[in-house]
Amino acid sequence: MNDSQLAALREAAADGVTRDGLSATQDDSGYTFVTPEVSHDGLSEEEFDALATENPWFVSNWHYWRGASETNEAFLRWVEHASELGVRERYETLVNGLTREWGELLVTTTLGTDGERSYELRHTADATTAVAELDSYHDPREAREVSTLDEDGRYRPLKTAPTLREGWRFADLDGRDLVRTVEFFYPATVANWYREQAGELDVSHFRETAERQTGIYSVIDDLDVDSVENLAEACCVDSQCLKRREWDEDEETPLDAPRGDGEFPCREPCSLVVAAARQFAVLEGEETRTYEVELTPSERSQLTDLVDAVADGRVDEIREADVGDGANRYRARYLRAKRLADGEFESLREKN
Amino acid sequence: MPALVIVAHGSHLNPGSHDPTFTHADTVRAAGAFDEVREAFWKEEPSFREVLRTIESEEVYVVPLFVSEGYFTEEVIPRELRLEDWDVSLWDSDGTDADTATLTAADVDKTIHYCGPVGTHPAMSDVIVQRAESVTQNPDVGEGFGLAVVGHGTNRNENSAKAIEYHADRVREMDRFDEVNALFMDEEPEVDDVTDYFESEDVVVVPLFVADGYHTQEDIPEDMGLTDDYREGYETPTEVEGHHIWYAGAVGTEPLMADVLLERAADAGADVDEALDIVRKRTATPAAGD
Ligand code: SF4
């Protein structure tokens, strides 16, 4: 606590102050000062100051939360577990830092000067990495660069894909800059999380999203509910996206695909999913046919290995010499050499 | 203080597509006229649908970083921002003179000033000229030079051609370049035949695109004969059929674009005079020899 925080509290007492167990008021009969442990009224200014000085955390804690926007306040209080920890317990723990995970972001809150707060942000996988090994950033806007490419230098069009690269930290952020940084990594997640907390998340389900589309995307309304199910399963589960899917086919028709355990909600199909849906809608326009193709049993199961390896993003992990894996490159090349000509199975026949 | 939201196309495939948007947003941020400046994208995040809820200010200026008036600015952006009672007649534009409309959005409690795109603002002509100065590294470029303004053709969007012609006309009226022509990718006069349309030996070619990408980096250089394969690069200028072609790349990467964003907000009533001064000083072409 510093003098200006105390002076601000004295001034605010006239209108009445309550925050995390602290309450302070002032009227003709003097000041009151109440915490979970003490309660005094009819205080002179000196007595009030003395009590405040004995309870500095309550004063600086009150001071810290003044002036934050509703959304930022809710998020920052969640970050420091304010609903579970009283002021005293929180301040004691904040000395060593309180943490929260937000997707792949690890937020650590510590005490700043005069009982305010300081925030650090890093990749959850870097939780125990030495600071010296991390690239240090301070400007929230730098999160745009950090989040553009993944570890292998590939573009990340979906900000909440679980592919954030590691090896960086944003240090000494104030509350506003923490939220800005988080929002550059995961845009609109704080705003939508707050709406959800307040019971006001405005979900737009798949069908209404499809009906809203124009131009090349209007075809996505042709997808039937089973295809929408497959779409959510393909794109929106936790292995692909860290948002928790709250949209369904429509209000009455939930989809079975796992929604995910993410902290922040997804309130409507995103542009990437809409673009994928367009491709699926075009492909689903075809009728099925029956084909006959000659394969050994191992070759048949190799086809499913190949599909699985691509779908699970495992292709790069399969070792050069691991010819036991059906999706191994030599195995795939052998199959192609044996069975395919001009990109088609040689023995393929369409059955009528 | 109000907020500025810059809405741009962005890309699912090209990581460089958002760079000019970020750069110009940062220039505007540094000029200090707005409490908050936020970028939003059709193909990236925050989406048009969700950007307004990330803003604290109650008054928001929305400026599309698009080159022409049409499908995106008239239909997609207002719909996705959920602007209530939007109607394109509010801009009262013939395709190149959209101004602003003050509206509310259905999902937030804010006043939204929805501005015309940067591409059809008169100040964009100055950016085209400045782009020519940048690529020739000559702040006085003009005499002895032709200038081509390049865009998509009408095949894609009727107003796209209008915006190109509008700026070609304006730059011609400046009487600075010996010749000024509008050229197109999908229709006559085609950019492929650039040398047929100019007598001047030196021709600056400025594509009216927001960001560099497939069209500006691969298509146009190959079509004009600067190179057979864009991956091999080309000289600036390149000699093509007796002309020196100074190919500028997307005009949208020119720092002065930040000025047009502010001009759009100013036209909608934002108090940005000081910021405009700052931005113009910072983004001016360095004098020769600097
Ligand atoms: S639609 Fe699916 S992929 Fe897109 S943000 Fe939501 S949960 Fe993630």
UniProtKB/TrEMBL annotation, chain A:
Residues 199-279 form the DR2241 4Fe-4S iron-sulfur cluster binding domain. It comes from the Archaea. Residues 87-197 form the DR2241 stabilising domain. Residues 3-66 form the DUF7348 domain. Gene3D superfamilies: 3.30.1360.190, 3.30.70.2320. InterPro entries: DR2241_Fer4 (IPR041346), DR2241_middle (IPR041181), DUF7348 (IPR055772). Signal peptide: none annotated. This is Uncharacterized protein. It comes from Halococcus thailandensis JCM 13552.
TrEMBL record, chain B:
Keywords: Cobalamin biosynthesis, Cobalt, Lyase, Metal-binding. Gene3D superfamilies: 3.40.50.1400. GO terms for molecular function: lyase activity; metal ion binding. Pfam families: CbiX. InterPro entries: CbiX-like, Sirohydro_Cobaltochel/CbiX. The keyword Lyase applies. The keyword Transferase does not apply. GO terms for biological process: cobalamin biosynthetic process. This is Cobalamin (Vitamin B12) biosynthesis CbiX protein. It comes from Halococcus thailandensis JCM 13552.
